[in-house]
Amino acid sequence: MSDMGLLHVYTGEGKGKTTAAVGLSVRAAGCGKRVVFAQFMKGAATGELAGMQRSPGIEIIRCEEAFPFYNQMNEEEKKRQSNCHNTILEQVLARVEKGACDMVILDEVTYPCRWVLLDEALLRQLLDTARGQAEVVCTGRDAPQWLLDRADYITEMQSVRHPYDKGVRAREGIEY
């Protein structure tokens, strides 16, 4: 097995999947690697994005439109979000094909997989193309079995206790 271009999956019900991917991005960029951080399902500004935007080694690709939660979207919104997700995949694939990145983060990609809000064949093509040349990290709950079957690393985040269970809302700088 090559030591380049392995696939990581950070999944599970616990907090920390995106945070772990951000940490790996910062580590890689700090070592001179070129990172593409692609974010799905999120359109609002977050603290991690502000920090990563200051790093010259990290390029962020995401949809700037903030969509409602999936179960609150109408069919037109789902179509627009699907188009946005496929555009993100195409942009990342183009960078991988050019050899323009050493690491790809596909943050929250498991959700559009589950809800069919992206072209799964395009995602598989991206993973196949990156194999052996760019490290890929996929994050999100309920990772599909086909993705787990391909993974070299699987990290499952488990929630043992969370303040949300006691009514504490998500806090800026901590949860987002």
Describe this structure in words.
The chain is of the alpha/beta class and 176 residues long. It has a single domain (7-166), classed as Rossmann fold (3-Layer(aba) Sandwich). 38% of the residues lie in helices and 18% in strands. The protein has six helices and six strands. The chain has helices at 17-30, 47-53, 75-98, 110-114, 120-130, 145-150; strands at 7-12, 35-39, 58-62, 103-107, 135-139, 153-157. The protein has a six-stranded parallel beta sheet with strand order 3-2-4-5-1-6, with helices on both faces. It is globular and about 45 Å long. The protein starts with 6 loop residues before the first strand and ends in a 19-residue tail after the last strand.
For the record, what CATH class applies?
Alpha Beta
Number of domains: 1
Q: Helical element count?
A: 6
Shape: globular
CATH homologous superfamily descriptor: P-loop containing nucleotide triphosphate hydrolases
Based on secondary structure, the structural category is alpha/beta
* Radius of gyration based on Cα positions: 16 Å
What percentage of the residues does DSSP assign to strands (E)?
Answer: 15-25%
Secondary-structure element pattern, one letter each: EHEHEHEHHEHE
CATH topology: Rossmann fold
Head-to-tail CA distance between termini:
36 Å
Largest sheet: 6 strands, parallel
Total strand segments: 6
Low-confidence runs (pLDDT<50, min 5 residues)? Answer: none
Mean pLDDT figure? 93
